[in-house]
Write a structure and sequence with these properties.
mainly alpha; 145 residues; 2 domains
């Protein structure tokens, strides 16, 4: 009877293992394109930053800090880093710094757009002034002799 129960438990465990393998395969298939897109996005950001697109630096720094926090947390859990308040909460610190850096990127973008708007308004005022000058009636002035 005990032997029969052990065989039944073994069959249940094998069936559960098959389901876990199937779920992991499905996750791998569905998550792989997302991971590729994320890696592609970061490489595009790096190339853009090298070409002089300054907002890309915020994006890269934010993701670097986030990934560092996740790495430190995982290293702590695997016993590679000692347990401390910092390493136990490194993932939360990484998320907070990521949010902060992306907020700085947004603030920088708002400032850049505000400067561009002011420059456009100045150019528009200059064009309006030039148009006003060009539409003034032309008067002949006779030189008195």
């Amino acid at each position: 009877m005990i032997y029969h129960d052990i065989n039944r438990i073994e069959e249940i465990l094998k069936s559960a293992l098959r389901w876990v393998a199937l779920i992991l395969a499905a996750m791998l298939i569905t998550e792989m394109p997302i991971a590729v897109l994320k890696a592609q996005r970061r490489s595009v950001a790096a190339v853009s930053w090298r070409r002089g697109f300054k907002p890309a630096r915020y994006y890269l720094a934010a993701w670097a800090v986030f990934m560092l926090g996740i790495f430190m947390f995982a290293s702590n859990k695997f016993g590679l880093l000692p347990r401390s308040l910092f390493t136990e909460n490194a993932h939360l610190i990484g998320v907070a710094l990521n949010t902060l850096m992306l907020s700085l990127a947004l603030a920088d973008r708002i400032n850049v757009l505000r400067q561009e708007k002011e420059e456009m308004q100045k150019q528009l005022e200059e064009l309006a002034r030039l148009q006003e000058i060009s539409t003034m009636p032309f008067r002949w002035v006779r030189a008195e002799t």
